[in-house]
């Protein structure tokens, strides 16, 4: 009987090996009951080409699931790198606290000790310390300007020229805090490479090396992410990756690497070791819930089904060009999870459809009841519809007006009258174009169409088209006015 069973099993194994399989929707190396219940639902509602979910405990990875494809249409695997976005801040915080533990710096040092460039400036006079920078209570606001200059001086110059800052101690999330902390690390360690220092002092101890934290590595080794573009998902070149951005939001790696780092953070928090000991600032918001912000991590209190409190440590990250990342762990349960998605845009980040399955998974995994699906009312369809309608109306209006112009010359006007009308037309057209350039991004939450294109490329394109149509219409009106002024002048009888 046993021989028959062995033979049957052998036959079935050979049959499985010999039978070609259809391309898998997902791959997995290990699973958990919780992950099995929720993984497919998360992916099915993510509206993203690819996702990775990895669970961990204090010793490392415990379960993992991978779905879909990357920006090169290759299957997502445990080795596929993603850009982790603002989760990078926790890495920078750890490096800062290591330097403090070594005595190289003090967390109570004023920031001007390391940045004499800020002496006499609004920010320098605020009295911010390194701890304030770590907690986002330095007074720096969520500065809207994207740092597109690869030099450190670009960040320093922008902060130096601020006319005002928030009162010291006011909590406001600002990536510029962590850009400056990256520069501080480079200055006090006399190392030109944040990437090398990061891998040496965090990557190795957390078993997550090599981390991608330099421009060439990220641009060349990380597959493009995706963003929504007129009803389709398109892969886009990675945006916003500059030498001084890694400390705030540019570190990249696989889901497994991030999970290993999460396991190290979990051990540190369970053992009340660095970096869990940093005092936290209160003021961050997680929906309706006030949370604390510590060493590049967010601390919130959830509740179990029996009403007991449970601390959750987390951070999310988003990177223009198509990446969203979530790291979350509980020191009390000794469990954590990471979720990596290769899509980010205004539609994906505000939708309840995408967030509800994730909230259900986290409630189940951490045995809590109050993890909620955050939904931000999206102005995307309203703005897109308005812009599209304006473009259609203006194009049709321009065509109709030009058709009428062919049949109806302008009456004679004085040079002053013609010049005034031309100037007013230019002023109106230029003002409307400027309003679109500044106002439309403001409705999306950005400062310019260039920045808007990073998260909503189709909206930015419609904005540029509307500006182009406006300027074309304005130019035609002015040109017609000047043309008929010249013709009427020629037609006047000479004395």
Task: Give an account of the 3D structure.
There is one protein chain. The protein has two domains: 334 residues, DD-peptidase/beta-lactamase superfamily (Beta-lactamase); 112 residues. The protein contains 15 helices and 13 strands. The protein is 46% helix and 16% strand. The N terminus is likely disordered. The protein has 495 residues and is α+β, with helices and mostly antiparallel strands. The strands form three sheets. It has a nine-stranded antiparallel β-sheet.
SSE sequence, one letter per element: HEHEEEHHHHHHEEHEHEEEEEEHHHHH
Major β-sheet profile: 9 strands, antiparallel
Oligomeric state of this protein? single chain
Mean pLDDT, rounded to whole units? Answer: 82
CATH topology of the largest domain: Beta-lactamase
CATH superfamily of the largest domain: DD-peptidase/beta-lactamase superfamily
For the record, the CATH class of the largest domain is Alpha Beta
- Number of folding domains? 2
The rough form would be described as: globular
Write a concise synopsis of the structure shown.
The protein contains 15 helices and 13 strands.
Salient structural properties:
495 residues; alpha+beta; Beta-lactamase; 2 domains; 9-stranded antiparallel β-sheet; two-stranded antiparallel sheet; 15 helices; 16% strand
List the helices and strands and how they pair.
Blueprint: H1 2-18, E1 26-30, H2 33-46, E2 50-57, E3 60-68, E4 82-83, H3 88-102, H4 130-135, H5 152-160, H6 175-189, H7 194-203, H8 215-221, E5 225-229, E6 232-236, H9 246-250, E7 252-253, H10 255-270, E8 281-286, E9 289-293, E10 298-303, E11 309-319, E12 323-330, E13 335-341, H11 352-366, H12 380-407, H13 415-444, H14 449-455, H15 457-491
Antiparallel strand pairs: 1-3, 2-3, 2-13, 4-7, 5-6, 8-9, 9-10, 10-11, 11-12, 12-13
